Amino acid sequence: MRFDFILVLGRNVECDKALARNNQTPQPIKFNSNPHRPPSLSLSLSVRSYPLLSNSMGRKTKIKDLLMGAIKDKASQSKAAILSTINTAASSTPQSLHLALLRATTHDPFSPPPAKHLAALLSFGHSSRATASAAIEALMDRLQTTQNSSVALKCLIAVHHIVKYGSFILQDQLSVFPSTGGRNYLKLSNFRDNSSPISWDLSSWVRWYGQYIENLIITSRFLGFFLGSNSCLAERDRQEERISAHMNSDLVRETESLVSLMEEICRRPDFSSLNGNRLVGEILGLVGQDQIAAMNEVSVRVKEFDERLSCMSFGDSVELLSTLKRSEDCKERLLTVSSAVKSDLVERFWELMREMKGRVKKEKEKVGGKLVVMAVRRDSVGESARFDDRVLRSYDSVRFSSGRLKVSMESCT
Asked: Residue 412 in contact with residue 395, Cβ under 8 Å?
Protein backbone atom coordinates (compact mmCIF):
# COMPACT_ATOMS: atom_id res chain seq x y z
CA MET A 1 0.00 0.00 0.00
CA ARG A 2 1.24 3.49 -0.80
CA PHE A 3 0.47 6.46 1.44
CA ASP A 4 0.18 10.04 0.18
CA PHE A 5 -0.18 12.68 2.84
CA ILE A 6 0.44 16.34 3.62
CA LEU A 7 2.89 17.44 6.33
CA VAL A 8 1.71 20.62 8.06
CA LEU A 9 4.70 22.68 9.13
CA GLY A 10 4.81 25.20 11.96
CA ARG A 11 4.31 28.74 10.78
CA ASN A 12 7.47 30.82 10.44
CA VAL A 13 6.81 34.52 10.92
CA GLU A 14 9.74 35.64 8.79
CA CYS A 15 8.70 33.36 5.92
CA ASP A 16 5.09 34.54 6.08
CA LYS A 17 6.15 38.18 5.97
CA ALA A 18 8.46 37.53 3.05
CA LEU A 19 5.79 35.62 1.16
CA ALA A 20 3.30 38.41 1.75
CA ARG A 21 5.70 40.97 0.32
CA ASN A 22 5.96 38.83 -2.82
CA ASN A 23 2.17 38.30 -3.03
CA GLN A 24 2.57 34.59 -2.40
CA THR A 25 0.87 32.21 0.01
CA PRO A 26 2.39 29.27 1.86
CA GLN A 27 1.92 26.03 -0.02
CA PRO A 28 1.68 22.59 1.56
CA ILE A 29 4.40 20.10 0.79
CA LYS A 30 3.41 16.69 -0.46
CA PHE A 31 5.32 13.61 0.56
CA ASN A 32 5.29 10.15 -0.95
CA SER A 33 6.12 7.51 1.60
CA ASN A 34 8.10 4.38 0.93
CA PRO A 35 5.55 1.57 0.55
CA HIS A 36 7.87 -0.92 2.25
CA ARG A 37 8.45 1.12 5.44
CA PRO A 38 6.30 2.95 7.98
CA PRO A 39 5.46 6.40 6.59
CA SER A 40 6.52 8.20 9.78
CA LEU A 41 10.06 6.83 9.64
CA SER A 42 10.89 6.94 5.93
CA LEU A 43 9.89 9.91 3.78
CA SER A 44 10.94 10.82 0.28
CA LEU A 45 10.71 14.54 -0.40
CA SER A 46 9.84 16.17 -3.67
CA VAL A 47 10.28 19.93 -3.48
CA ARG A 48 9.91 22.30 -6.37
CA SER A 49 12.28 25.20 -6.83
CA TYR A 50 11.27 28.06 -4.55
CA PRO A 51 11.87 31.76 -5.24
CA LEU A 52 14.46 33.81 -3.46
CA LEU A 53 13.24 36.12 -0.72
CA SER A 54 14.72 39.38 0.50
CA ASN A 55 14.70 39.10 4.28
CA SER A 56 15.02 41.86 6.89
CA MET A 57 18.82 41.62 6.79
CA GLY A 58 18.96 42.67 3.14
CA ARG A 59 20.22 39.25 2.05
CA LYS A 60 18.75 36.60 -0.21
CA THR A 61 17.42 33.50 1.50
CA LYS A 62 15.81 30.53 -0.18
CA ILE A 63 12.46 29.39 1.11
CA LYS A 64 13.66 25.89 0.28
CA ASP A 65 16.49 26.18 2.83
CA LEU A 66 14.10 27.35 5.54
CA LEU A 67 11.58 24.63 4.78
CA MET A 68 14.21 21.92 4.63
CA GLY A 69 15.33 22.87 8.13
CA ALA A 70 11.75 22.76 9.39
CA ILE A 71 11.19 19.40 7.69
CA LYS A 72 14.29 17.94 9.32
CA ASP A 73 13.04 19.12 12.70
CA LYS A 74 9.58 17.65 12.19
CA ALA A 75 10.91 14.33 10.92
CA SER A 76 13.49 13.86 13.69
CA GLN A 77 11.05 14.96 16.40
CA SER A 78 8.33 12.66 15.09
CA LYS A 79 10.70 9.70 15.12
CA ALA A 80 11.88 10.53 18.65
CA ALA A 81 8.27 10.98 19.80
CA ILE A 82 7.28 7.55 18.43
CA LEU A 83 10.23 5.84 20.09
CA SER A 84 9.50 7.67 23.34
CA THR A 85 5.86 6.58 23.23
CA ILE A 86 6.77 2.95 22.56
CA ASN A 87 9.06 2.95 25.58
CA THR A 88 6.93 2.81 28.72
CA ALA A 89 9.70 3.83 31.10
CA ALA A 90 9.85 7.09 32.99
CA SER A 91 10.29 10.49 31.38
CA SER A 92 14.04 10.35 31.95
CA THR A 93 14.57 7.71 29.26
CA PRO A 94 17.13 8.39 26.52
CA GLN A 95 14.31 8.75 23.97
CA SER A 96 12.59 11.46 26.04
CA LEU A 97 15.92 13.25 26.51
CA HIS A 98 16.60 13.09 22.80
CA LEU A 99 13.15 14.48 22.01
CA ALA A 100 13.55 17.37 24.48
CA LEU A 101 16.94 18.19 22.98
CA LEU A 102 15.60 18.17 19.42
CA ARG A 103 12.74 20.47 20.34
CA ALA A 104 15.09 22.95 22.01
CA THR A 105 17.64 23.01 19.16
CA THR A 106 15.76 23.38 15.89
CA HIS A 107 17.07 24.62 12.54
CA ASP A 108 15.08 27.89 12.59
CA PRO A 109 17.68 30.69 12.14
CA PHE A 110 15.37 33.45 13.38
CA SER A 111 13.83 32.27 16.66
CA PRO A 112 15.48 31.33 19.99
CA PRO A 113 14.61 28.09 21.78
CA PRO A 114 11.14 28.30 23.39
CA ALA A 115 11.26 28.64 27.17
CA LYS A 116 9.15 25.52 27.72
CA HIS A 117 11.54 23.35 25.71
CA LEU A 118 14.55 24.70 27.58
CA ALA A 119 12.75 24.03 30.86
CA ALA A 120 12.04 20.48 29.72
CA LEU A 121 15.74 19.98 28.97
CA LEU A 122 16.79 21.43 32.34
CA SER A 123 14.32 19.18 34.14
CA PHE A 124 16.64 16.23 33.54
CA GLY A 125 18.93 17.81 36.14
CA HIS A 126 16.37 17.14 38.89
CA SER A 127 16.83 13.38 38.66
CA SER A 128 19.89 11.24 39.30
CA ARG A 129 23.48 12.20 38.59
CA ALA A 130 23.60 9.59 35.82
CA THR A 131 20.62 11.22 34.09
CA ALA A 132 22.19 14.67 34.40
CA SER A 133 25.45 13.34 32.99
CA ALA A 134 23.57 11.79 30.04
CA ALA A 135 21.83 15.12 29.39
CA ILE A 136 25.13 17.04 29.29
CA GLU A 137 26.73 14.38 27.08
CA ALA A 138 23.80 14.43 24.64
CA LEU A 139 23.80 18.24 24.48
CA MET A 140 27.55 18.43 23.89
CA ASP A 141 27.41 15.67 21.30
CA ARG A 142 24.77 17.57 19.32
CA LEU A 143 26.77 20.79 19.65
CA GLN A 144 30.01 19.27 18.42
CA THR A 145 28.56 17.18 15.60
CA THR A 146 26.12 19.61 14.00
CA GLN A 147 27.12 21.57 10.93
CA ASN A 148 24.15 23.94 11.17
CA SER A 149 24.82 27.35 12.74
CA SER A 150 21.27 27.72 14.10
CA VAL A 151 21.43 24.37 15.89
CA ALA A 152 24.88 25.19 17.28
CA LEU A 153 23.74 28.55 18.65
CA LYS A 154 20.70 27.00 20.30
CA CYS A 155 22.88 24.32 21.88
CA LEU A 156 25.09 27.09 23.29
CA ILE A 157 22.01 28.94 24.57
CA ALA A 158 20.98 25.71 26.31
CA VAL A 159 24.44 25.48 27.90
CA HIS A 160 24.13 29.11 28.98
CA HIS A 161 20.75 28.38 30.57
CA ILE A 162 22.29 25.47 32.48
CA VAL A 163 24.92 27.88 33.81
CA LYS A 164 22.28 30.38 34.92
CA TYR A 165 19.26 28.28 35.87
CA GLY A 166 20.37 24.64 35.97
CA SER A 167 20.26 22.46 39.08
CA PHE A 168 23.40 21.85 41.11
CA ILE A 169 23.83 18.33 39.66
CA LEU A 170 23.46 19.57 36.09
CA GLN A 171 25.92 22.43 36.67
CA ASP A 172 28.34 20.05 38.33
CA GLN A 173 28.30 17.72 35.32
CA LEU A 174 28.83 20.70 33.01
CA SER A 175 31.78 21.95 35.04
CA VAL A 176 33.65 18.66 34.68
CA PHE A 177 32.97 18.23 30.95
CA PRO A 178 35.32 17.30 29.53
CA SER A 179 37.62 16.07 32.26
CA THR A 180 40.59 17.73 30.54
CA GLY A 181 38.91 21.16 30.36
CA GLY A 182 41.15 23.84 28.84
CA ARG A 183 40.65 26.22 25.94
CA ASN A 184 38.57 25.41 22.88
CA TYR A 185 37.19 22.23 24.42
CA LEU A 186 33.86 23.02 22.72
CA LYS A 187 35.76 22.70 19.41
CA LEU A 188 33.99 25.59 17.69
CA SER A 189 36.89 27.86 16.79
CA ASN A 190 36.82 26.66 13.16
CA PHE A 191 33.05 26.40 12.78
CA ARG A 192 31.77 27.32 9.29
CA ASP A 193 28.28 26.98 7.81
CA ASN A 194 28.10 28.28 4.24
CA SER A 195 24.73 26.72 3.37
CA SER A 196 23.11 30.16 3.14
CA PRO A 197 24.04 33.84 3.69
CA ILE A 198 22.36 34.00 7.10
CA SER A 199 24.04 30.74 8.13
CA TRP A 200 27.39 32.24 7.18
CA ASP A 201 26.65 35.34 9.29
CA LEU A 202 25.58 33.20 12.23
CA SER A 203 28.78 31.14 11.97
CA SER A 204 30.83 34.02 13.36
CA TRP A 205 28.42 34.16 16.28
CA VAL A 206 28.89 30.42 16.90
CA ARG A 207 32.67 30.88 17.07
CA TRP A 208 32.45 33.89 19.38
CA TYR A 209 29.65 32.53 21.60
CA GLY A 210 31.47 29.23 22.00
CA GLN A 211 34.63 31.05 23.09
CA TYR A 212 32.57 33.20 25.45
CA ILE A 213 30.89 30.17 27.08
CA GLU A 214 34.31 28.58 27.57
CA ASN A 215 35.60 31.76 29.28
CA LEU A 216 32.44 31.94 31.39
CA ILE A 217 32.96 28.40 32.68
CA ILE A 218 36.67 29.00 33.32
CA THR A 219 35.88 32.21 35.23
CA SER A 220 33.25 30.36 37.24
CA ARG A 221 35.84 27.75 38.19
CA PHE A 222 38.07 30.51 39.57
CA LEU A 223 35.19 32.06 41.52
CA GLY A 224 33.90 28.77 42.90
CA PHE A 225 30.37 29.31 41.59
CA PHE A 226 28.71 29.95 38.25
CA LEU A 227 28.66 33.66 37.47
CA GLY A 228 25.14 35.05 37.16
CA SER A 229 23.52 31.84 38.39
CA ASN A 230 21.08 31.30 41.25
CA SER A 231 23.99 30.09 43.37
CA CYS A 232 25.73 33.39 42.63
CA LEU A 233 22.76 35.27 44.04
CA ALA A 234 22.79 33.05 47.12
CA GLU A 235 26.47 33.88 47.69
CA ARG A 236 25.77 37.62 47.93
CA ASP A 237 24.66 37.45 51.56
CA ARG A 238 28.06 36.29 52.72
CA GLN A 239 30.07 37.75 49.86
CA GLU A 240 32.07 40.24 51.92
CA GLU A 241 32.96 37.65 54.55
CA ARG A 242 34.02 35.13 51.92
CA ILE A 243 36.14 37.57 49.93
CA SER A 244 37.86 39.01 53.01
CA ALA A 245 39.22 35.52 53.71
CA HIS A 246 40.90 35.27 50.29
CA MET A 247 44.61 35.76 49.78
CA ASN A 248 45.69 38.76 47.73
CA SER A 249 46.98 36.57 44.92
CA ASP A 250 43.64 34.72 44.72
CA LEU A 251 41.68 37.97 44.52
CA VAL A 252 43.98 39.28 41.78
CA ARG A 253 43.52 36.06 39.82
CA GLU A 254 39.73 36.22 40.17
CA THR A 255 39.65 39.88 39.12
CA GLU A 256 41.84 39.17 36.11
CA SER A 257 39.54 36.34 35.06
CA LEU A 258 36.46 38.57 35.34
CA VAL A 259 38.12 41.28 33.27
CA SER A 260 39.07 38.65 30.66
CA LEU A 261 35.40 37.74 30.43
CA MET A 262 34.50 41.41 29.90
CA GLU A 263 37.15 41.61 27.18
CA GLU A 264 35.56 38.60 25.48
CA ILE A 265 32.21 40.42 25.48
CA CYS A 266 33.92 43.25 23.59
CA ARG A 267 34.90 40.83 20.82
CA ARG A 268 31.24 40.25 19.95
CA PRO A 269 30.71 40.14 16.16
CA ASP A 270 28.97 42.94 14.34
CA PHE A 271 25.24 42.27 14.07
CA SER A 272 24.20 45.03 11.68
CA SER A 273 23.35 42.40 9.06
CA LEU A 274 21.35 40.47 11.69
CA ASN A 275 19.43 43.40 13.13
CA GLY A 276 16.06 42.18 14.35
CA ASN A 277 17.09 38.54 14.55
CA ARG A 278 15.53 37.23 17.77
CA LEU A 279 18.02 34.37 18.06
CA VAL A 280 20.90 36.85 18.25
CA GLY A 281 18.83 39.07 20.52
CA GLU A 282 18.44 36.22 23.00
CA ILE A 283 22.22 35.76 23.11
CA LEU A 284 22.80 39.47 23.67
CA GLY A 285 20.31 39.46 26.53
CA LEU A 286 22.02 36.56 28.30
CA VAL A 287 25.48 38.04 27.83
CA GLY A 288 24.24 41.44 29.04
CA GLN A 289 23.08 39.86 32.30
CA ASP A 290 26.50 38.24 32.71
CA GLN A 291 28.18 41.59 32.17
CA ILE A 292 26.21 43.15 35.01
CA ALA A 293 27.11 40.21 37.26
CA ALA A 294 30.79 40.48 36.28
CA MET A 295 30.85 44.21 37.01
CA ASN A 296 29.32 43.62 40.43
CA GLU A 297 31.90 40.93 41.25
CA VAL A 298 34.76 43.16 40.12
CA SER A 299 33.41 46.07 42.18
CA VAL A 300 33.29 43.97 45.35
CA ARG A 301 36.89 42.85 44.86
CA VAL A 302 38.13 46.33 44.03
CA LYS A 303 36.60 47.64 47.26
CA GLU A 304 38.37 44.86 49.13
CA PHE A 305 41.66 45.80 47.48
CA ASP A 306 41.16 49.33 48.79
CA GLU A 307 41.37 47.88 52.31
CA ARG A 308 44.52 45.94 51.49
CA LEU A 309 46.69 48.37 49.55
CA SER A 310 49.12 48.82 52.42
CA CYS A 311 49.75 45.07 52.71
CA MET A 312 49.87 44.10 49.03
CA SER A 313 53.12 42.86 47.58
CA PHE A 314 54.78 44.68 44.71
CA GLY A 315 53.97 41.81 42.32
CA ASP A 316 50.29 41.77 43.25
CA SER A 317 50.12 45.55 42.84
CA VAL A 318 51.62 45.32 39.36
CA GLU A 319 49.18 42.58 38.31
CA LEU A 320 46.21 44.47 39.74
CA LEU A 321 47.22 47.70 38.01
CA SER A 322 47.58 45.86 34.71
CA THR A 323 44.13 44.33 35.16
CA LEU A 324 42.56 47.71 35.92
CA LYS A 325 44.17 49.21 32.82
CA ARG A 326 42.80 46.36 30.70
CA SER A 327 39.32 47.02 32.05
CA GLU A 328 39.58 50.67 31.07
CA ASP A 329 40.77 49.73 27.59
CA CYS A 330 37.50 47.95 26.90
CA LYS A 331 35.31 50.68 28.42
CA GLU A 332 34.17 52.28 25.17
CA ARG A 333 33.45 48.96 23.51
CA LEU A 334 31.45 47.75 26.50
CA LEU A 335 29.37 50.93 26.48
CA THR A 336 28.32 50.23 22.89
CA VAL A 337 27.73 46.54 23.54
CA SER A 338 25.72 47.02 26.75
CA SER A 339 23.45 49.91 25.85
CA ALA A 340 20.69 48.26 27.90
CA VAL A 341 22.70 48.45 31.13
CA LYS A 342 21.70 51.32 33.40
CA SER A 343 23.94 54.32 32.82
CA ASP A 344 24.25 55.20 36.53
CA LEU A 345 25.50 51.69 37.30
CA VAL A 346 28.05 51.88 34.52
CA GLU A 347 29.27 55.33 35.56
CA ARG A 348 29.74 54.28 39.18
CA PHE A 349 31.66 51.21 38.05
CA TRP A 350 34.08 53.09 35.84
CA GLU A 351 34.53 55.83 38.44
CA LEU A 352 35.49 53.14 40.95
CA MET A 353 37.96 51.65 38.46
CA ARG A 354 39.53 55.03 37.78
CA GLU A 355 39.96 55.91 41.46
CA MET A 356 41.34 52.50 42.31
CA LYS A 357 43.86 52.60 39.49
CA GLY A 358 45.23 55.90 40.81
CA ARG A 359 45.57 54.55 44.36
CA VAL A 360 47.23 51.33 43.23
CA LYS A 361 49.65 53.28 41.07
CA LYS A 362 50.71 55.47 43.99
CA GLU A 363 51.06 52.48 46.31
CA LYS A 364 53.04 50.55 43.69
CA GLU A 365 55.51 53.40 43.31
CA LYS A 366 55.94 53.66 47.09
CA VAL A 367 56.29 49.92 47.69
CA GLY A 368 58.37 49.46 44.55
CA GLY A 369 61.01 51.88 45.78
CA LYS A 370 61.36 49.96 49.04
CA LEU A 371 61.73 46.68 47.17
CA VAL A 372 64.53 48.10 45.05
CA VAL A 373 66.48 49.13 48.18
CA MET A 374 65.92 45.73 49.77
CA ALA A 375 67.09 43.97 46.60
CA VAL A 376 70.37 45.90 46.59
CA ARG A 377 71.04 45.10 50.22
CA ARG A 378 70.32 41.39 49.78
CA ASP A 379 72.57 41.07 46.76
CA SER A 380 75.48 42.35 48.83
CA VAL A 381 75.27 39.66 51.52
CA GLY A 382 75.87 35.94 51.59
CA GLU A 383 73.51 32.98 51.70
CA SER A 384 73.74 32.60 55.49
CA ALA A 385 72.67 36.23 55.96
CA ARG A 386 69.76 35.77 53.56
CA PHE A 387 68.67 32.71 55.54
CA ASP A 388 68.84 34.82 58.70
CA ASP A 389 66.48 37.30 57.06
CA ARG A 390 63.84 34.59 56.81
CA VAL A 391 63.65 34.32 60.60
CA LEU A 392 60.79 36.33 62.09
CA ARG A 393 62.14 39.04 64.38
CA SER A 394 60.39 40.63 67.31
CA TYR A 395 59.70 43.88 65.46
CA ASP A 396 58.25 42.25 62.34
CA SER A 397 54.54 42.45 61.51
CA VAL A 398 52.36 39.54 60.48
CA ARG A 399 49.87 40.79 57.90
CA PHE A 400 46.80 38.87 56.92
CA SER A 401 45.15 38.96 53.49
CA SER A 402 42.62 41.58 54.48
CA GLY A 403 43.81 44.97 55.67
CA ARG A 404 41.14 44.83 58.34
CA LEU A 405 43.16 42.21 60.21
CA LYS A 406 46.66 43.17 61.31
CA VAL A 407 48.56 41.73 64.25
CA SER A 408 51.88 43.12 65.44
CA MET A 409 54.19 40.89 67.38
CA GLU A 410 55.47 42.44 70.57
CA SER A 411 58.85 41.64 72.03
CA CYS A 412 58.78 38.86 74.59
CA THR A 413 61.57 40.39 76.57
From this structure: no
